[in-house]
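Chain A, query sequence.
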Amino acid sequence: MAESGTGDVEERIARLEQQDQRLTRALELLAQRDAARAVKPGRDWDAYAAVIASFVGILALAVSGYTAYEQRQQLRAQVWPYLQLWRSDVNVGFYITNQGTGPARIIAARVMVDGTP
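Chain A, predicted structure.
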């Protein structure tokens, strides 16, 4: 009985060694195939894709920056003062009103009558 048990173990070892040799050969063939692909002349499409992706990213960044700039300008325009000069016949005089949404800061004013201050 001991001999039959030893024979089983030897058979298993022989099968494992054959399987190991087949796997080693398959790995060698895969390595040769990958090396053949690397040497194969042609275009490197990955490099083109990387350049195009970089360009698209830079373009998106530029558009985003320009959009932020435009929004800031529009927001600033929403709070501009809009002074309107009008005259009243009921209460004789000229009046200035701020029709804009932002505060108006008047630093100086000059009234001219017939070309003289």
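The chain is about 60% helix and 10% strand. Residues 2-78 form one domain.
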